[in-house]
Structure formats: C-alpha cells, structure tokens
Amino acid sequence: MAECFETSDSQHGHGGVGSAIGDLAARLWHSSNMCPKDQETGKALPVDLPSVNLAADGEQIISATERKITVVSTSGHRSIDATIHLPDNYDANNKYPVVLAVHGLAGSADDIYERGGFEAMRQAGSIIVAPEALRGPVFARSWQSPTENITVLHNGSDARGQKIDDVKGIIDVLAAVKKHYSIDQNNVNLFGFSQGFGVAVAVAATLDKDQAGAVRRVFGAAGTIPSLENGALAGTDVVHYGGEDDWVEPVANWIVGSHGRAPSQDTLMREMKQAKSCPIDSAQMALNGVRMSESDCHDGSHVVELRDPLGEHCVPGQPASLDNTPLTGMTCSAAAGNPLDFESIMQNSVLDQNATYPNLVRRAISLGTRTDLPAGP
Asked: What stretch of H or E contains 92?
C-alpha cells in the first residue's frame, strides 16, 4: 500500500518552480480520484500506487539538456523535486555516468549545480541529477530523516503523520532516473556539500548494503553532519575536501543541538576511515598549501582527504561571482586565491576509470603564488 500526498506549503515548500511541480504532482493524484478520503477525519487513505513513480505530467522540459521532475516517494513520505541536466546530444542508446548532487542547508538544486561547477561535467558527458530539500519553518531548505544523523532545524511529516525521510526519497529519485534515462550502472556517483555530504553518505551506505560498490564514488566538500553508523560504504571511494578555517563546526553544533553532532574535519575523516577499514596511507603530498592523503581500504576502495589551511566552508573552485555570499560561499574561487578546482577532480575521476587520485589532484591545483601559507607540509 502507498500514500497519497496532501498539497500544502509545509509539504511542498513556499513558492518557486520546484514547489509548483510538487503541487502539480499532488493534484494529479487528487484529480484522478486516486486519493480517497476518510469520511470522518477527511485524511487521505492508503491506495495502491507504485513505490516509485515519476509523475508523467510532473516532468517539465526546460531546454534540450534540462528537465525538472517530481518523484512520488512513498518510502520517503513526500514527493521530491529534482533537476536533471543531460549531456549535449543525449542519446538513449548510449550509457552515461551519473552524478547526483546534494545541496547543503539553505541551498537549492540550482545553487549546487552552479556552485559545484557541474555545467563543465555535463558538457564533458555526465548526467547531473540535483534533488531539492523542502523549506522548513524558517524558510531554509533542509534535508530530513527520522533515522539518520542529518536533520537540522525540523523533521516534517506527510498527511498521515509519517516522518519525511529524504535519504529514502533520494534513493527513489535515483531509481526513477535509472528507469527513465540511459545510465551507466557501474559509474553512479554522489556529491554532497555541507549537510548534503551527510545525506550522500547515508544514501551510498544504504545502496552499498544491497550491492557492494553500487555507488562508485562519494565526493564531498565541507561535510559537517555525516552518518557513518549504518555502513562502511563497501566498494565506494570517498573524496572529501575540508578547510581548516571552516567556521561552520561550532555554528552547526549550535543549530543541530540534540539532533546530532557536527564533527571536526579530523574526526569526520578518521571515523570514515575506521568505518571503511582503511588502515594504510598509500600517498601523501602537499601542493601550494593543499595537503592530500590517500588511504587504501581492505575492499579495494580509497579514502582521499584534501585539506586546505586557508580553506573556507565552500566548494573550492566555484565561480568568482559566488564568493563572499552568506553561509554557503566565501573566498573559494581561483580569483580569490583558492588553488584547488574540485570539479576537475570529480570530472576526471568519473570519466577516466584508470586515473589515480594523486595525479588528479596534481592536475586540479593551480601552482600560482599564494601568500600567508602556514609552515610545514
């Protein structure tokens, strides 16, 4: 049995194209008499619906390479909007790598696409999928889960009081994309910024439990709220960037409060390596102040840690136009002196299965003059 979804601002957000599509999907169920009501309470009753449904009339063709879709996720207890960016000359007869990009707290699908440099990855031949969180009581989008350590500010419910679970919802989005688009099943990748990294880890851990290596790589930037208790990400590489000047840890701990914790970058990566059983540091180097360490794991996967003593809470290499914006971006572009192009690492590892991470990092770091670097490696 599945859920029908009531249309409300608390369910679908407050304005914008994404929430409008979510409202449309909900109205489709009502208008086709698929949402019967309890005569006494007026609440929606369970109906027989598929567990994952890409609402046919909920898909909007924005351009030749962009789609906006709504996936009705009964396991996640909400309809979830996502933007799909297709390569130029997309051909369903070919197989394409996919990167699912998860925005951070107060972000959006469009924001992470621009901030993460994913347009370059799309042009290079990857499908980019960007799901979107709901707005909460303070109108900031935030991912939610009743079981994972990712919820910030609130955890909403559907019309029947079931807690929203965005981890399951994003898994349903990925399932729908695999069904309707031509995906290389051996090259499924996730990216998460800030809160989104915790979501990406939880999604990968859930999928890897059923099939080791179901997610090929998880990329992250400034991850603050991971979920490491539910799995070791079997067969999945993890590549994470963190800045030692990242101010978000104490702020995140204050926001999260009793809901969980926001560990330091050191704690985050140490726990990641322990969970994945990666005892051996196979490569270490420092270029222009950016330090890299790579650990080999027992299952053949790798954990790569990138640390920048001057780094901020951001995706390094973002467009200069996004520097110095509140909360989600500071001095992160090459124009502002950040030497690392994180998108380059993602793109080249996704497109070149034989590339090694040290070589990818060398190619991604600008070796121009940088001032005020701390001493030591």
From this structure: none
- Go through the chain and tell me how many residues it has: 377
* Rounded CA separation 318/301 (Å): 27
In CATH, 52-364 is 3.40.50.1820:
yes
Q: How far is CA 218 from CA 96, 100, 113, 348, 353, in A?
A: 17, 10, 16, 14, 15
CB-based burial label for 84 (10 Å; 0-12, 13-18, 19+)? buried
Instruction: Walk along the chain (377 residues) and give the pLDDT tens digit of each residue.
Output: 333 333 333 333 333 333 333 333 333 333 333 344 444 555 544 433 334 455 444 678 899 999 999 888 888 888 899 999 999 999 999 999 999 999 988 889 999 999 888 999 999 999 999 999 988 666 678 888 877 666 665 667 766 777 888 999 999 999 999 988 999 999 999 999 988 988 998 899 889 988 889 999 999 988 765 555 555 788 999 999 887 655 445 455 544 444 445 556 677 778 788 888 887 778 888 888 888 999 999 889 999 999 887 777 788 888 777 776 554 446 677 777 778 889 999 999 999 888 899 999 988 887 665 554 444 43
Report yes or no: 133 and 185 within 8 Å, Cβ to Cβ.
no
For 167, 197, 231, 251, 344, the CA distances from 219, given in Å and listed in that order, are: 17, 8, 17, 23, 12
Instruction: Write down the domain spans for the chain.
Output: 52-364
The helix (run of H) or strand (run of E) holding residue 180 is: helix 166-180
Gap between the Cα atoms of 188 and 173, Å rounded: 13
**Which two three-digit tokens encode residue 330?**
């500071």
Strand partners, 242: 307
